[in-house]
Amino acid sequence: MARTLLMLPAMALSLGLVAQDGPTPTVPANDPVLEQLDELSLLPWLKNDPFSTDAGALNVHGFAPTDTPSYTPEVYRQRLAVLDERTPFKLTYNDQVQAYIDLYARRKREQTARMLGLAQLYFPVFEEALDRHGMPLELKYLAVVESALYPGARSRAAAVGLWQFMIGTGRLYGLEVDSYVDERCDVYQSTDAACRYLKDLHRIFGNWELALAAYNCGPGNVNKAIRRAGGSGDYWSVYNHLPRETRGYVPAFIAVNYIFNHATDHNLYPIIPNYCAYEVDTVQVCYPLDLTQLATLMGGNAQELKDLNPTFKQGIVPDLQQPVSIYLPHHMVDEFLEFEDAIMYSYVPDMSTPAPYSPASRSTTAAASAQGGRKYHTVRSGESLGTIARKHGATVSQLRKWNNLRSDRIHAGQKLVVKQGAPAATPPTANTSATEARPTPSTVSAGTPSNEGDKPVEYIYHVVQPGDTLWGIAQRYPGVTVDDIKRLNSDMNLHKLPVGRKLKVRVQG
To answer: What is the mean pLDDT of the chain?
Structure first.
C-alpha cells in the first residue's frame, strides 16, 4: 500500500492524492516488460551509482524523501488527456496503462530515476534524429521501454542495443554485425536505423500504436491480429489478438510518456550513472586497438572501457580502414592523444583467434598481384604516415623512401606506395636494419645501423610500459647500461618514466 501523505484531507483531495487502499491493477510477475526491466537493472550503466534522494530544487511539492505519491484515476486520466493533445499518439488511460504507471512510479522507482538521468544524455540524440526524419519526438520514449536506455542491452531473443534490433532487421537497415563489431550498439547509427524502420511501419499500418506493436513483434503478427479482429485498425481492438509479450508494449509506452512528464509529481528525480556522468569523451582511431591492452597501457579499467564501447563485441577495435569513434573517460583523453603513436604500436593480436577483419584485405592483395607486387594506398582524412605504415606492415622511413617524401606531411586523396615488390616482402635477416622490419609492440625502429668495428649497431626506440625502470629496460638489451640510456636521452627528465614515453636505446649485435 502506498504511503499516505501527511497533509489535510481537503488539500489531498484537491491535488488528487489518494492512498491506494482498494485493489489496483498490477503488472503480473511473469510480464515480459517487467522481466526485461529486472534484467536491465543489473547492467553496469544502471547499477554503478548509489541512489540519491537529494531532490534539491526539483522537489517543488516539498515531498519527504520516502514519500511515494499516488493519485485518483481521474487525475491520471486528465494528465494523459493534456499530453494527448500535444502528440499524434493516442495516450489512452485504462487499467493496463495504470498498471505500468504503478510499475515505474512505485515498484521500480530507483531504476526509473536512473533512466531519467540517462534520458538527459540520450534524448538529445534521439530528438535530433526524429526531427530530421519528421517524426513525433515522443518516439524517444520507445527506447526506455526497449532497453532502459542501456546501449549494450541484449534480450533473451538476441535483440541488441538501445533500440533492440534483431540481427536480420538491423542489417536490413544498414547495421553491420560481425565477430568484432555490432553497430546495433552504436547510439547514432542504431537511432537512425530505428527512425527509418518506424517510419516504414507507420506507412504500412497508418497509425503509431500499431507501428509500435509491429516494432515489437513484427508486421506479420500485427496483420494476423488485425484479421482476427475483423479488420479493425485500432490498437485496443486488436489488443487481445496480439502475442502476449506485445500486449503490454503500448501500455508501457503510454506509461513512460506519463512518467517522464510527471516525474516530480511522483517524487522522482534524475540520477546520473557513473559511466555517463564521468565526462565521457570520444576519440577517433583508424588502426586496430585492444581495449584491455589500452587500459593496461594507460592505467585504466578494462571492463569500464568495454562497457563504454559495447559496439566492439570482443573489446577489440578492428582495422576498418576508416576512422571510428571510441568512448573514454574524460581524464584519459589528453594522455591518449599525447601518447597515441605508442598506443598505435601497442596492439598485440591474440593468435588463438583470427585477426580482426579488414575490408581492404582482398582488394589490396589483388592490387598488389596485378601490379607486380607493388601496392598503393589512397590517404583518407585523419590518417598519418604512422597509421598507414602500421596497416600495411611497413615503417615510416620506408614510406618516405618509396614515395620520395621529405617530411611526414601527407594529405587526403594522396596515393602512396605501401609495398615495393618482392624485396620489401622478404623477411628481415639478422643483419637487416631495424627500420626494414615491422615494429614490435614494445619497440619502434629508428634510423639506420652504423658500424663500430665489425659489430653492427642499431638505435631503436623503447616505448615505456607500466612498471618499467631504467635498470629493467637496460637488462632487456645486451650490452646496454643505465648510463647509456641516460646519455642517449639527455634531453629528457628520466626521474619519471611516463607510460608511452619513447627512449632511444643503442643495441649492438
So the answer is: 77
